[in-house]
Specification:
Chain lengths: 411, 400, 261
């Protein structure tokens, strides 16, 4: 037993949980371990078995990562995986876009959330991963520098916005409007930077860059289409609700691969254009059907009184939808929408499967098709999985934090 | 007195036509229909429909389809439609197995997420975070690659007692086949046995229900599950020998570089099912966790208070109630498994989507093929929904 | 059954006696599927009059006032508000809605807008009032309902009584000629009821035409010019508070009053 500290005559009596917190750390730790790991014989057995399995897995992973794997398949194919066919002399456009997006992420965090210790740790880890990748074997010094600038901008954006007052008021409103506006404008700006004024042609979007372009286009396009679709499905006018329902159900009836098949073989006759543009259209059209269902669910969850109150103060149907119903429905549907966005992010890999488009996974296939790297297939796919995981994790993390602080104004 | 509902004539109105609400609605819909018609018309005219028709499906296939099970078509004389149906059967197999496995795994992980054991809960969380946030395609391909690269070549196959083999050609296990048995009975005897088994299963179910009722009424233990199991086991054994052992185990063997006999799970099938299972079980785990957490806290406390064990608490109190919330979301996941099974294309498993693509490559007719694909997926989805609605109706039959 | 005892009540106040009917309803029917919610209602209300509507739940009293600003469409009969007939003319609908303010049982404030924006939304979007004027109006109304300091808060941050007062201010911001109250205090905790009733009483004194569905008998006795008792979609009895509380004629009215008092 650990001796309790001698009672101090001037000590103030605290509530039990605070009292417990005053005991030595080692005692608390021992109690915690007993409570959470060895609370019964079954529990102990479970802990031992799980720990054994976990240790085995951990050993396997460490052995693979540090001993067995040949990561040169990644580092030697850095550019191929990152941007593939994008013109190498236009690299600054890519990094400019990355920096811009990082700045926006920082501003978003600073406006609606705050960076916690876990966030900093995560940023450091991801940055370490990225710099290791860029700096390994030298050569990519400029890229490393660019990356550091981008991370720096994230913190600059954060530092500026976090200092602004959070209380409701005209300044707060202005700040929110500016950041929201930038977020909305981000996609067009990035596309212009990447493609316009001597940039690449659309078909030269390649590798990870292609994933990074396809997903936002699918998400933004889907959202724009989903709002009228959801309203249409909920409409009292039969002709409108019937066609919207048919659209939603048919699109949801076939897998995305099936629709990409359409983009490849059928859409060519209908809208023509470059394959990548057709793929974007299909992604947006596909996403819209799912998002429309989430919005419809939110519309149904909204109390009837909201629409009635809007009519009672004389707002027209259109005004009521635009000012009262839709803003609330969109807010309710944020969690499933984020899920859908992450889903689309992962689904951007599918363009590789039947279309002759090469995103990250496709270029990983190309990397291991080189003779010297054929034994390193597992490494390549593990790398791809990790990269996708990191971005998906960032997406869900940002949305969680922002959702939490959007709580104000909810019922 | 008021007139009956609905038959009230509209009050004679002197409102100008254009300002009447009904007229406006009609007008809006009219404009909408016109625009839709123009769009559809445009699509229709831009499609190349000169050779539209499904006749090409009856022509000989002239291609092979792998991963066949219980069917044997070589693709020489068979029609394209037959080959497509073989693909549909392959899809169905993968989907059914993946649904079963991901449900079991998903419930386990979901419950583990809420375990009071910190380590178990953390491992479950890690599992969910990893498999939910990586692309299914990468998971399927990664499993496939591991199976091809990681497993031994068939020349130095991993052999357990000459009945279980693992190599990069897949996994081979013993499999029951109809047998003539002691008396040289005809092969259809196996179906007699299956029928007898079903009868005994029904009887056992009956006994179980009776004993459960007794237990409820008298409060004395009547061991419903043990009695039912024993009855079924005895019945199965006795009838098996009475019919002269109509089934025998077919042991796998290796001839040259191929497995023969037994049941072979090819790496393509394994990769697809494993990928679908890992991915979907992570989602199902979250649904199960959410369903359990949504229950009022009092339920668990009440179960504790009446002295149920942890396992009883889960199976008798928590899960039955959580099912109400779980089933609709899980149904969605099953539908996703159905659609995601098209990723078979990436690991060269000949499911319906891949066969359809092969047909399209050989014969064109992309529009017709797409039509066939979407109708097939919708039919399978419909079947899954029907089954799940049946379950849902049973679960929600008792209102709480 | 139709309303057999609709003897027009003598107007108590001078200004009402001289005023014209601002709400005219003739033989109004309303059906929900097979259920008849309103059965041949004919009820007129004069300008500046305060009418309190009583009745058990399901008696059609809420349906009646919801028909008056077209949240429900009547199936037969005639409703005329301030000279504008309620029919399927889209122009009339908008005109009527901005003349009739409504306060709901569940407040129905817009949770995503601040108190200020809740109030100014109607004037700005429907009346095209400049933002500065609308803000000034809102500030003035918040003072009138006694919560000027809550302008920048969100509805979820207010108590029920405060929310309902904001809802009244929001309806008043459209400068309506008529105010409808649909059980405005039923969702409130007892200690908050008074603050809402006080606001309504002040409003009544200012000469607003009001139709109030409520169970607050004290309010009815003190403020109402006329009480109307609804049951099963009919107007069973109507008259002055004095008539109602001291000498009700109909059995159903007596029964109802004995239960509620």
């Amino acid at each position: 037993m650990v001796d309790m500290p001698a009672p101090n005559p001037q000590r103030i009596v605290l509530p039990p949980h605070r009292e417990r917190a005053r005991r030595p750390r080692i005692v608390r730790l021992r109690e915690w371990v007993k409570r959470n790991l060895f609370h019964s014989r079954m529990g102990t057995l479970l802990t031992v078995v799980t720990a054994a399995v976990g240790a085995l897995l951990l050993y396997g992973i460490i052995y693979f990562v540090f001993v067995d794997a040949n990561w040169r398949v990644i580092t030697d194919n850095r550019w191929l995986l990152f941007a593939g066919g994008y013109p190498m002399d236009q690299e600054w456009r890519l990094w400019f876009s990355v920096s811009f997006v990082f700045l926006l992420i920082g501003m978003t965090y600073g406006t609606w959330a705050s960076l916690g210790r876990r966030d900093h740790v995560f940023i450091v880890l991801v940055s370490g991963f990225a710099i290791l990748l860029l700096a390994h074997g030298g050569a990519a010094l400029w890229s490393t520098l660019w990356y550091l600038i981008a991370i720096g901008l994230l913190y600059v954006g954060y530092a500026i916005t976090i200092r602004m007052p959070r209380e409701a008021g005209p300044r707060r409103t202005l700040q929110q409007r500016i950041v929201t506006g930038l977020l909305i404008a981000a996609l067009p700006i990035v596309l212009i930077v990447l493609l316009a004024f001597g940039g690449a042609r659309p078909r030269e979007l390649d590798g990870f860059v292609l994933n990074l372009v396809l997903a936002p286009v699918g998400i933004a396009g889907g959202l724009v289409l989903a709002i009228p679709l959801a309203l249409g499905r909920a409409s009292r006018m039969k002709a409108i609700s019937w066609t919207c329902t048919t659209y939603i159900e048919v699109v949801r009836g076939a897998p995305l691969l099936g629709w990409l098949f359409v983009a490849l073989f059928i859409l060519d006759d209908v809208i023509g254009g470059e394959l990548i543009v057709r793929a974007m259209v299909v992604l947006a059209v596909f996403t819209a059907a799912y998002m429309a269902e989430y919005i419809r669910g939110a519309l149904q969850a909204l109390p009837h009184g909201q629409g009635e109150a809007a009519h009672a103060i004389g707002l027209s149907q259109l005004q009521s939808t635009q000012l009262i119903v839709m803003p609330q429905a969109l807010r309710i549907s944020i969690p499933p929408m984020v899920g859908q966005a992450i889903s689309i992010w992962k689904d951007t890999t599918l363009v590789t499967v039947i279309l002759p488009l090469r995103e990250l996974k496709g270029n990983a296939d190309s990397a291991i098709a080189q003779f010297e790297f054929t034994p390193d297939r597992i490494e390549a796919y593990v790398f791809v999985a990790v990269v996708f995981w990191v971005v998906a994790f960032i997406m869900s993390r940002i949305s969680q934090r922002v959702e939490g602080s959007l709580g104000i104004g909810e019922r | 007195m008021a007139v009956a509902a609905g038959s009230a004539p509209p009050p004679p109105s002197n409102v100008p036509l254009l300002y009447r609400r009904g007229v406006r609605r009609l007008l809006t819909q009219g404009i909408y229909v016109a625009i839709t018609a123009v769009v559809i018309g445009y699509i229709y005219t831009s499609l190349d429909l000169r050779e539209f028709g499904f006749g090409f499906l009856d022509e000989p296939a002239a291609f092979k389809v792998g991963n066949q099970w219980l069917v044997d078509v070589d693709g020489v004389t068979n029609s394209r439609l037959t080959m497509y149906l073989v693909g549909v059967w392959s899809s169905l197999r993968a989907v059914m197995v993946a649904i079963a496995l991901s449900t079991v795994l998903g419930v386990l992980i979901g419950v583990a997420r809420l375990s009071s054991n910190w380590l178990v809960a953390q491992m479950a969380m890690l599992y969910v975070e990893i498999f939910r946030n990586t692309p299914l395609l990468v998971q399927v391909v990664l499993v496939y690659t591991v199976l091809l690269v990681g497993a031994p070549l068939i020349e130095n196959v991993f052999n357990v007692g000459d009945f279980f083999f693992v190599s990069n050609r897949g996994m081979a296990i013993p499999w029951p086949v109809p047998d003539s048995g002691f008396w040289g009975a005809p092969e259809w005897f196996v179906w007699v046995w299956v029928a007898v088994l079903l009868l005994f299963a029904a009887a056992a179910q009956r006994v179980r229900a009776n004993r459960q009722e007794l237990e409820r009424d008298t409060g004395q233990p009547h061991y419903a599950n043990r009695w039912a199991l024993a009855l079924f086991a005895v019945g199965a054994l006795v009838s098996f020998f009475a019919l002269g052992a109509p089934v025998s185990m077919d042991l796998p063997m290796i001839v040259g570089t191929h497995y023969i006999e037994g049941m072979v799970m090819e790496p393509e099938f394994t990769a697809l099912v494993a990928g679908l299972t890992l991915y979907t079980s992570a989602f199902i785990a979250e649904i199960v966790r959410g369903g359990i957490q949504a229950l009022p806290k009092g339920q668990s406390e009440a179960a504790n208070a009446v002295g149920l064990s942890g396992y009883q608490r889960l199976t008798l109190v928590i899960l039955p109630q959580a099912l109400r919330q779980i089933i609709p979301s899980v149904t969605n996941q099953y539908l996703n498994i159905n659609k995601n099974s098209s990723l078979a294309y990436a690991v060269l498993y000949d499911d319906l989507f891949r066969v359809a693509n092969i047909v399209q490559n050989k014969a064109g007719h992309a529009l017709e093929m797409f039509f066939v694909i979407i109708v097939t997926y919708m039919l399978i989805s419909f079947a899954i929904s029907m089954v799940m609605n049946f379950f849902n109706a049973r679960v929600t039959a008792q209102r709480i | 059954m139709s309303s057999e005892t609709t003897t027009p009540a003598p107007a108590v106040r001078e200004e009402i006696a001289q005023a014209d009917d601002i709400i005219i309803t003739e033989n109004v029917d309303k059906w929900f599927g097979d259920f008849q919610a309103l059965d041949d209602i004919s009820l007129n209300v004069r300008e500046h009059e305060i009418v309190v509507v009583l009745g058990p739940s399901g008696s059609g009293k809420s349906t009646f006032i919801r028909c008056l600003n077209r949240l429900e469409e009547h199936d037969a009969g005639k409703i005329v508000i301030d000279g504008i007939e309620m029919n399927d003319d889209v122009r009339n609908l908008n005109a009527i809605r901005s003349e009739v303010g409504m306060v709901f049982q569940q407040f129905n404030l817009f949770p995503h807008l601040s108190v200020m924006n809740n109030i100014t939304l109607g004037p700005r979007k429907v009346r095209r009032m400049p933002k500065l004027d609308a803000d000034a109006l809102a500030t003035q109304l918040l003072e009138r309902v006694g919560i000027p300091e809550q302008a920048d808060k969100y509805p979820a941050q207010l108590s029920g009584g405060q929310q309902q007062r904001v809802a009244i201010a929001r309806a008043l911001a459209m400068q309506p000629k008529i105010m409808l109250f649909d059980e405005p205090t039923s969702a409130l905790d007892p200690e908050m009821i008074k603050e809402v009733l006080d606001v309504m009483q002040e409003l009544a004194r200012s000469g607003m035409t009001m139709i109030v569905v409520t169970h607050e008998m004290g309010f009815a006795r003190e403020v109402a010019d006329r009480l109307v008792f609804f049951d099963e979609g009919n107007v069973v009895e109507q008259g002055t508070p004095q008539h109602f509380f001291e000498n009700p004629q109909e059995e159903r009215t007596k029964l109802f009053l004995s239960q509620i008092l």
